[in-house]
Amino acid sequence: FFFKQKTAYEISACLVGSEMCIRDRDIQFRNCVKGEIIEGRMCKECPGPFNYSIEQNPTFQTKCQACDSSKMFCAGGDRICPKFSFKRLNNDTDLVYQCPNKQACLGSDQECHDLIGKCKEGYQGNLCASCKKGFAKTGTDKCSLCSQGWRFY
After folding, report:
1. Which of 73, 87, 130, 148 has the most other CB atoms within 10 Å of its CB?
2. How much is the pLDDT for 33?
3. pLDDT for 49-71, tens place per residue?
4. Is pLDDT above 60 for 6?
5. 79-84 long-range contacts, Cβ below 8 Å, gap at least 24?
6. Is the torsion defined by CA of 58, 60, 63, 67 positive or negative?
7. Of all helices (H) and strands (E), which one includes residue 87?
8. Residue 12's beta-bridge partner residues?
């Protein structure tokens, strides 16, 4: 339920005679969380593999977002991840970018075990566009292992 607070009444038999006692009770309901939408009066997780929701406070969101299957996998809820040659910059955005060197971005698997995507060995950073220590850029955005004894800056 998405109501923050609601009052309910508890009705029970009193110890004196057969009269009924009514006590006022406060019931706390949780807010919907990231990955859920409001359906009726209930929070419901967006079903994969074709939908997702990454809203931080989805109090009024009633529709899941459609998954762009050309560049990402959607595993339900807030679990979206990039396919091969794509990368997300962080878990709080649904923007998925194609990497300048498509071979450098390995993406994730369909179960979204890596939500932003992995870089190929020797690559690092946003869009896997930088070389790790011990690797150097060659002319076409490729990172190559440095020869022993050589250093590139």
Report:
1. 87
2. 87
3. 899 999 876 667 778 999 999 99
4. no
5. 79/35, 79/48, 79/52, 79/112, 79/115, 80/52, 80/54, 80/112, 80/115, 81/107, 81/108, 81/109, 81/112, 81/113, 81/114, 81/115, 81/116, 81/117, 82/107, 82/108, 82/116, 82/117, 83/107, 83/108
6. negative
7. strand 86-88
8. 21
Mean pLDDT along residues 108-116 = 95
Q: Which two tokens stand for residue 84?
A: 């091969």
Please give the Cα distance from 104 to 121 (Å, whole number): 8
13: β partners: 20
Q: Which two tokens stand for residue 61?
A: 């969101």
- The token pair at 113 is 């075990």
Lowest mean pLDDT among 20-24, 113-117, 125-129: 20-24
Give the type of residue at 69: S
